[in-house]
Request: fold
Amino acid sequence: MAKSVEGVQAFGWAARDASGVLSPFNFSRRATGDKDVKFKVLYCGICHSDLHQIKNEWGSTSYPLLPGHEIVGVVTEVGSKVQKVKVGDKVGVGCLVGSCLSCDSCVNHLENYCPKPIYSLNSFYYDGTPSYGGFSDVMVVDEHFILHFPDNLPLDATAPLLCAGITTYSPLRYFGLDKPGLHVGVVGLGGLGHLAVKFAKAFGAKVTVISTSPRKKEEAIEGLGADSFLVSRDPDQMQVINRVFNLSFVTCTVPYTLIHF
Reply:
């Protein structure tokens, strides 16, 4: 498909201040460039970091802020030099939509360590225009940062993989916990924790969920397939920690004592 020559009119939901309220927001995305992919947004997850940004809890928010960095949809237009995807393909993009592509990190496929990153939201492109996230109807993204999904992968379940998913998958692989026969303890059963459980089980590990909330036991074992469950506030239960785990995998994002881990 021929690329757009004018900016792309878009609609989304944005925060105008630190109240946490989102309201309708009309704006423009850039025209589809030679290496750009335009896609219709079908699903977008919400991460706790989105909430921090919306409420300016990190002190760095530029308003209006349009959140969302677990963004998936279907390609509607591609630039003339795009090779990875075509119109109609299922695609997505995570927290990173741009980088310099020339520093040592970028050359070694570690764009997330680039000193000049462009994030999906609350960031600025090199021409000074702001980036807006996935709580919108359309995205225009450099092909380099686009992920292509197989047709049989349901997009609603795919979106969380672009942040919570890679955040847990990457360290499990990095620390060698992707092999059968290991015993992994997952601390916290939230957005990150539930994916850590599913990945570890898929790798063939025995998984124990460790939580402050006894009410999460049913979800952990029956819903996600964990092998066992420990309540971290119970000293007797926690005595087994150092004897049985190859690694305790901490996924909670609140202050938490590490004395048992």
Summary: The radius of gyration is 20 Å.
